[in-house]
Specification:
Length: 226
């Protein structure tokens, strides 16, 4: 797989993984879709990992099964997961804890493999760090959005001397040493100020308003997906 593309936008260097179907996490997912034929993920409706898992599983001849809260209409990202062959299981009364519990029970009953929420496990984080190390750059300042905080923690391993900023979009993330900036929008809302490139509307795009105000010239922003 080609390394990430970096393009300058308004004085900020942006990792443009919106060019990559499935986004950043699909870069390293293939090495973890082993030991089973079916991989299960419990997700908020707005989550992008469901898309990354579905695309990667299809490319490997595996099955992705997505557990998500029941809605009147599937969210765009859940529809995208379905379009790439994922089985969609909608859970009534779908608090995330309930969705996760149902996904775990399904795996125990079927032998499918449950992927951790946010893909938050050490081997995955270190694999993402290896992607960043392979860029052979040393950014002084690094910005990300933090849902689970997996990406910023990976980049902190790759670039331990950099200054880190993470934009919180939901519950408080495990963001390592990053300075946290809380997005004013609700989790399900799109970014009020959109960046000048394709960016996931209620995830990565929410960082741009903070980058415009606070980032130093030449800072790096990691755009995970469109």
């Amino acid at each position: 797989m080609k390394p990430p593309t970096i393009i300058e936008h308004d004085g900020i260097f942006v990792v443009r993984d919106d060019y990559l179907p499935g986004g950043t996490k699909s870069r390293v997912l293939p090495r973890f879709l082993v030991g089973a034929d079916e991989f299960v993920y419990a997700t908020p409706a707005y989550g992008y990992a469901q898309v990354a898992l579905s695309i990667t599983a299809k490319s490997m001849g595996k099955r992705a099964t997505i557990f998500v809260a029941k809605r009147n209409e599937l969210h765009t990202r859940t529809r995208a997961a379905y379009s790439f062959g994922a089985k969609i299981v909608q859970i009534p009364y779908g608090y995330l804890s309930n969705v996760q519990a149902k996904a775990k029970a399904y795996c125990e009953a079927t032998g499918a493999k449950l992927m951790p929420f946010g893909l938050d496990f050490p081997e995955f984080i270190h694999s993402l760090a290896d992607v960043a190390i392979g860029l052979n750059i040393k950014p002084a300042e690094v910005w990300t959005v933090a849902g689970s905080g997996v990406l910023t923690r990976a980049l902190q391993i790759a670039w331990p001397k950099s200054s880190f900023h993470a934009v919180q979009i939901g519950s408080f993330p495990k963001a390592g040493v990053a300075t946290i900036h809380k997005a004013p929008e609700k989790f399900e809302q799109d970014a009020a100020i959109k960046p000048p490139f394709p960016s996931c509307s209620n995830y990565d795009a929410k960082a741009w308003q903070f980058i415009r105000r606070h980032a130093k010239p030449g800072a790096l922003f990691w755009n995970v997906a469109a």
